[in-house]
Design a protein that fits this description.
The structure is a homodimer. By secondary structure, chain A is an alpha+beta fold. In chain A, about 55% of the residues lie in helices and about 15% in strands. The first copy, chain A, binds a DNA duplex through helix 4.
Chain lengths: ~100, ~100
DNA sequence: AGGATAGGCAAGCCGTCACTTGCCTGTCAA
DNA sequence: TTGACAGGCAAGTGACGGCTTGCCTATCCT
């Protein structure tokens, strides 16, 4: 479970999750392009690749290889464990 | 929002949140004792104090000072922003 | 077949972070 | 009032993390 938070601790990785939320199943180069063109993040391909490896190890993304392409898919199920551990109490909720 | 994930990235801080979930409004020394006695974590008082500062800056705990005691209270409302950003899709949920 | 494309592996650099050590401030009780 | 208790403020150290550089493998297209 610690891997999930470690993965989410980096702002670039959170931006990657945002990009996959908007358009799922992107490849490494697509993510690189969108990070530079839409978020002004000029990162090396290897840097993004390492970020994706961290996200995959945390279980937040799954990969599907097809030919020479590797597509990345978002998986938010690990986030559900957060709420089971520390229930979120909003205003007006019963104590 | 990045402060929340940075705060949750450390296992000791997550354990502190667990302790405050079980018993809210603890003081610094109480947390120290419970970390050592129940979680086998032998940390200095200052180390725990720094962890609490990080958690407070992230908005995950609030402090209430009374005399020479300072009580720490859990606040899980920042966690709600996680689900608003990346909706958790459980199995059997409508696409 | 051969070049171009998509991606992987490994070492190195630099900043941040967790933790300690040392000392100082404020509050309560005897 | 003086010590004991609860907490705070730094500065220093060692390790981990993010990023780059350089090179290598695999797949597709002409």
């Amino acid at each position: 479970m610690g891997d999930v938070f470690k993965a989410l601790a980096d702002p670039t990785r959170r931006t990657i999750l945002d990009e996959l939320t908007e358009r799922d199943g992107q490849t490494l180069f697509e993510i690189c392009v969108r990070l530079t063109s839409r978020h002004q993040l000029s990162l090396t391909r290897q840097a993004v690749s390492q970020h994706l490896a961290v996200l995959e190890e945390a279980g937040l993304i799954t990969t599907r290889k097809q030919g020479r392409y590797k597509f990345h898919h978002l998986d938010t199920t690990p986030l559900a464990a957060i709420f089971e551990r520390w229930p979120v109490t909003r205003k007006g909720q019963a104590p």
